[in-house]
Automatic annotation (TrEMBL):
Intracellular or extracellular location(s): Secreted
GO CC terms, sorted: extracellular region
GO molecular function (one): cysteine-type endopeptidase inhibitor activity
Protein name: Cystatin-12-like
Gene: LOC105993735
Domain Cystatin: from-to ranges: 37-96
SUPFAM superfamilies membership: Cystatin/monellin (SSF54403)
Species of provenance: Dipodomys ordii
Assigned keywords, A-Z: Disulfide bond, Protease inhibitor, Secreted, Signal, Thiol protease inhibitor
Pfam families xrefs: Cystatin
Length: 128
């Protein structure tokens, strides 16, 4: 229970921090945003001790900071039955039963797509 409280406080603090960036809504299918989403999901899977991969269930917010390539990515991830280093995670079915896990994450990412460079400036994830 205490862990959930700390995670909630973390999301609130990140939300306050995000407000100072003055983000604007963009189309979640915009090429550079979509590539940045792929990067953060890959990074999330790499950083997890879990042997199973997570995939995007829903993009809640797609925003960017005006005149920059800094994106706010707010998404929900679901745990799949596939291992995290398999080829096509997007087509993997989600787990059912007691192993079911969903995670809500907010990332602030600077994306320099033309040189394939990404920098996660801030991130917060909580299990839902």
């Amino acid at each position: 229970m205490l862990q959930k409280v700390f995670q909630l406080v973390g999301l609130i603090v990140l939300g306050i921090h995000v407000c100072s960036y003055q983000f604007n809504n963009i189309d979640k299918h915009m090429k550079y945003f979509a590539i940045s989403v792929e990067y953060v999901v890959h990074k999330f899977n790499e950083d997890q001790d879990d042997e199973f991969a997570y995939k995007v269930l829903q993009v809640w917010r797609s925003q960017h900071q005006r005149w920059t390539w800094i994106f706010l990515i707010d998404l929900e991830l679901g745990r799949t039955i596939c291992k995290k280093y398999e080829e096509d995670i997007d087509s993997c079915p989600l787990q059912h039963g007691p192993g079911v896990k969903k995670v809500r994450c907010i990332y602030i990412v600077e994306s320099l797509i033309w040189i394939t460079q990404f920098k996660v400036m801030n991130s917060t994830c909580i299990q839902t």
